[in-house]
């Protein structure tokens, strides 16, 4: 099932069984993030049907996302800037801690706000023409879409400092090495890998996926004693689910495959 694209549709949605493909649709602006686009993105994630188990997020045209639409900064006051950040924070929170895992397929520019968006996603695939940058220092501004928190958690504040101070551009291969991407594919092959991974993720027990998305980040922020207790609670909750019991019994009865290298 797909939606017809209209001129004001800044984000498009296509649903194929358990997988939703969500596409940033401002190719003429290199998919720069306006408040209107952020609002549509949040609305799509909030209204995904229950049949969707995983989402793929990508960008139309030559780029994933070249960052904040800077035209929205020219007339805004400091108070309006804070409110705009709050809109981004809420939208990204709903994506990162939502019901469905999200796989990014990144190509071309993954810059500024585009990298902030990518850092909220759970699995990140970079095609080999993707490049990452944080040019805020050169623009006279600062990260405002959660990147100082989320990107720093991925690669450390020292690397973020370097990227922001110098305008350093990170290639897809280096991005994978330092943690900005999990996979690198040749250009044009990212979506095929995303579909393969999406099918694996969709086959998991929904409660396990929900726990992975919501408990792991919480545990990472907690002292060890708190984290271990949170882990024990989530282990008990998931193990008590009827679907988990069936899956464990299938393994014990040799009706499920063992883990093996690909």
Automatic annotation (TrEMBL):
Its EC number is 4.2.1.17. Pfam families: ECH_1. Keywords: Lyase. GO terms for molecular function: enoyl-CoA hydratase activity. It comes from the Bacteria. Belongs to the enoyl-CoA hydratase/isomerase family. PANTHER family: ENOYL-COA HYDRATASE (PTHR43802), IP11341P-RELATED (PTHR43802:SF1). This is Enoyl-CoA hydratase. It comes from Pseudomonas alkylphenolica.
């Amino acid at each position: 099932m797909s939606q017809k694209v209209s001129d004001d549709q800044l984000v498009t949605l296509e649903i194929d069984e358990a997988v939703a493909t969500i596409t940033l649709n401002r190719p003429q602006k290199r998919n720069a993030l306006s408040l209107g686009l952020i609002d549509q993105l949040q609305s799509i994630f909030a209204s995904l049907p229950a049949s969707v188990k995983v989402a793929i997020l990508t960008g139309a045209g030559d780029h994933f996302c070249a960052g904040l639409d800077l035209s929205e900064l020219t007339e805004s006051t400091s108070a309006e800037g804070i409110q705009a950040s709050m809109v981004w924070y809420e939208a990204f929170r709903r994506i990162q801690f939502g019901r469905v895992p999200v796989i990014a397929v990144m190509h071309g520019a993954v810059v500024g706000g585009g990298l902030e968006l990518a850092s909220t996603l759970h699995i990140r695939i970079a095609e080999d023409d993707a490049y990452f940058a944080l040019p805020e220092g050169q623009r006279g501004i600062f990260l405002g879409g959660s990147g100082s928190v989320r990107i720093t958690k991925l690669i450390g504040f020292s690397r973020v400092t370097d990227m922001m101070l110098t305008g350093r551009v990170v290639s897809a291969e280096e991005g994978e090495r330092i943690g900005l991407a999990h996979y690198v594919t040749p250009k044009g092959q990212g979506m095929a890998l995303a579909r393969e991974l999406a099918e694996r993720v969709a086959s998991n027990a929904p409660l396990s996926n929900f726990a992975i998305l919501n408990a792991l980040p919480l545990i990472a922020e907690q002292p060890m004693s708190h984290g271990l207790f949170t882990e024990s609670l989530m282990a008990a909750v998931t193990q008590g689910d009827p679907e988990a019991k069936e899956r464990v019994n299938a393994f014990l009865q040799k009706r499920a495959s063992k883990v093996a290298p690909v």
